[in-house]
Amino acid sequence: MNDPADRFFDPDPAQRGVARDLYAQVADLPLVCPHGHVDPRLFAEDAPLGTPADLFIIPDHYVFRMLYSQGIPLEQLGVSTRVGETVETDHRKIWQVFADHFYLYRGTPTGLWLTQELRQLFGVDERLKSGNAQEIYDQIASKLATPEFRPRLLYKRFNIEVLCTTDAATDPLDVHRAIRLSGWEGDIRPTFRPDKVVNIATPGWLESIQALSQVSGVDISSYEGYIQALEQRRGFFKEMGATASDHAAFTPYTLILDKEEAGRIFQRALRKQATAADVRRFTGHMLVEMARMSVEDGLVMQIHPGSWRDHNPTLYEKFGADKGADIPIQTEYTRNLQPLLSRYGNEPSLGLILFTLDETAYTRELAPLAGHYPAVKLGPPWWFHDSLNGMRRYFDGVMETAGIYNTAGFNDDTRAFPSIPARHDLWRRLGANWLAGLVVRHVIQPDEAADMAVELACGLVRRAYRLPGAESRVSSSWL
After folding, report:
1. Which long-range contacts (CB under 8 A, 24 or more apart) does 212-215 make?
2. What distance in Å separates the CA atoms of residue 432 and residue 450, rounded to the nearest whole number?
3. CA 73, chain centre distance (Å)
């Protein structure tokens, strides 16, 4: 397969030459991975990664959502059902279906990652297709069976500096503890994710509250106990190396309730009597409470709003959550975040990283918010926009208003561990290309571009997430 060294760079030779030089300065820098969904058990167990189908297809909704959109049943791809129906267990057959339809990924970000993984990680020089599917399956399987393809050695091979997972507030973090006790030098850190105990409409919320009480040792029969339990868990996560919390919200709506009103809603939720208005108000209030806790304990707060989760009810009923049916919604930030920002947006100790699935908010709201409030940083292109064109639009739409130093650099936000190098490589190449465009237009000087390229690759994300190695560069509350 063709692997041009100048892939993703501008066709203009002047810009391409500058981009090539800038990229060379950052290509081999460590990968900083502050937010993602890689299972920490990979590094605790350090077991083989399974078959090619286990690695590329069965667990990855980025991959099978495209196949499903073309009418291929998920059962045929080995995706387990909630109702115990029979699914395909022959991984060679699953791989053959994948290869038969690999053309579907042409021009997509998933296609870019998969192609680069196959080529650079597994040495696959041919384009995957029906006729060579089994040969390539064998080639990948033979490598997966070797010690060099165990998770810990891949972590080192990928040159990962730190990798943060996403963990429920009720998680005892036993797996993280096992990693630390193993003596392995890899830096794997948890991230505090309280969604299941904060959103009172979440299925199983009462069971999650009971689990929160048990793991924290705090009685949660009152709102006060609930807050105390959350604070206790955040403290424990921080002791285990966490530097951030993460909050998925349907919208970034916030408001401030007094303790009495919050307590009354909490009691109605305990009795299963909460209304839709209660749900919205309490969730909005708890985002403000989480900002208050971040001011006090220093955990960086991430907000990932704007996804209608499990939009396809038929698929959800059969297969459960996270099966590729999450769809973006239009999202408003200026009004919704004003209560939170009016109280904490000027706090130098708050780190608030905002993400969006609604690109129309970049120039209209998010870049101006990040360009004003000391607490706010703008996260990188997320999910559907973590792509060639999504990154281009981000650089063009955000940086003039916010400047790069009010952004949080890059994070890969992936479950697919082997795709991490390809995702970072795309960001570094496009960052170099964008900076090269500024150089050839005489907007910035070459030395400034070189400094900015390093910042986009590593510096910004280290400081935004308060990770080790966050060297001082500008006067900022994030140092």
Report:
1. 212/169, 212/170, 215/170, 215/171, 215/172
2. 9
3. 27
Does the CA dihedral 342-233-356-330 come out positive or negative?
Answer: negative
Closest CA to 194 of 242, 154, 246: 246
Inter-residue contact 298 to 312 (CB < 8 Å): no
Tens digit of each residue's pLDDT (9 = 90 or more) over 224-234: 999 999 999 99
User: For the chain, how many residues are written?
Assistant: 479
3-state secondary structure of 232: helix
Question: Which amino acid does the sequence have at 123?
Answer: G
Strand pairing partners for 164?
Answer: 189
Predicted TM-score (pTM) above 0.85: yes
Contact between residue 75 and residue 67 where contact means Cβ atoms under 8 Å apart: no
CATH of 49-147, one of 3.30.390.30, 1.20.120.1200, 1.10.2020.10, 3.30.565.10: 1.10.2020.10
Q: Which CATH architecture has domain 151-464?
A: Alpha-Beta Barrel (3.20)
Phi-psi region of 107 (alpha: psi -120 to 50; beta: other; left: phi over 0): left
- Per-residue CA distances from 23 to 280, 380, 388, 452, 453 (Å): 45, 19, 16, 11, 8
pLDDT score for 4: 76
DSSP per-residue string spanning 185-223: ---EE--EE-HHHH-TTSTTHHHHHHHHHHHHT---SSH
Residue boundaries of the structural domains of the chain: 49-147, 151-464
- Look up residue 327 and give its two tokens: 């769809």
Query: In this predicted model, what pLDDT tens digit does every residue of 442-475 receive, in sequence order?
Result: 999 999 999 999 999 999 999 999 999 876 554 3
Burial 372-402 (b: 16+ CB within 10 A, else e): ebbbbbbbbbbbebbbbebbebbbebbbebb
